[in-house]
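Table S7 (text form). Paired inputs.
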Amino acid sequence: MRRLWRDQRGGFTIEASLVLPMIFYTVLLLLFFCLYLYQHVLLGQAATVAAERTAYTWDNSHKNVLTGANAEGQYDSLYWRLGDDGMLQAIFDWNSEGGTVKLDLPGGNEEAGQSLPLQKLSRTGAGLPEGISGEMRYDNRLLLRKVSVALERLVPLAPLEGWIGDVNQSVRAEAYVVEPVEWIRTVELARYFGEKFRSDKGQGGTDKQEAKEALKLFGK
């Protein structure tokens, strides 16, 4: 028995048979983890690109989503920001949502009769990869206009589904609509009506209902 215990023949084979499976499964886990991170990065990149492109082309619905170019003479109506973009809702608090527009994904194709903000969201939503669900959202808080994109996707990892079940990934990206000239106009509009609302009618003031009706005429 002592001679067998001291015999080193076959020791490498026994050690390799014990260590190799551990190394093999560790490498597999690292590979699947890298695939998971890769898919998560792709999903995050899709959300970021969708938000940035939508915000960049928000000032003109005729702009190409990929290049930002538009044909000469193609613009939205002059006062689209007052009515279609929800500025009046943001100023006068017509409803609790204010100037908020939501688009459920998938299904981002433009349809007849859609509001202008929904059309702009649909143009970008239609270009997202297949198999992605979620929501695109536009919020107009008068001085803060933001496009939010929340995406979800089921990642098929067949070898791991039996252990951890379905793997869902979710990401969120935001981009702000930046229009320096229009921002200055909005600030001046807010200051003007803020002073009007604080003053009495005898001192040149007005109420929200009168101001709303006046701005509605320009928003058409």
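Next pair, protein 2 of 2.
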Amino acid sequence: MYALLIGIVDMLYINCVWVLKVCFKKLNKCIYKLKKLQFDNDLRAETIVHHGQKNSLLLIKLKHLEEKHLEISDVVQLVNDTFIIHIIVLVITTFTTITFNLYFFLLKIYSPETENIKLWFIPNIAPAFYFFIKFVMIIWICESTTNEAKKIKWILYDAFSDTTDPMVRREVHLFSLQIMHRDNKFTAKTFDMNSVLLGQF
């Protein structure tokens, strides 16, 4: 029963992080579409009125994406706060399971007269692989979601680096400040869920 509950919470965490990855990816696509809107704006700016309408539409869309980024960042923080204990328990359990299985495996190889170890080692080799594979999956999804969140900054700079409108430049500057202040990492307060943690195993 306990293992089933842990498995359900693990899948819930993976699903939450995956949905956040999709949200960041959609946000990146929308910012890239704004680049196209800005480019079309520069090509078709026949009158000042038309140009002003296009820029106000661009500003409204940019402000909307800025609000969406803030909401997604709040959800990342909520996921971190909600699953903090579970992630710490997962890391400790994975570390101890793999360590003890490796220890008893090496003990069995170098000390053949220990028969009691066989009883402990054989039934627990499958959980060691299970915990390791599950941990690798969680690290992978957290790392890829964090990388997707980091792309927003570069896509924003790429989309609006050559804009001349001061209002758009100001809004892009505010958006980039928001991106810098919101650290969209998956963490358990003591360690980040990334490949560095996986390398420590």
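The radius of gyration is 24 Å.
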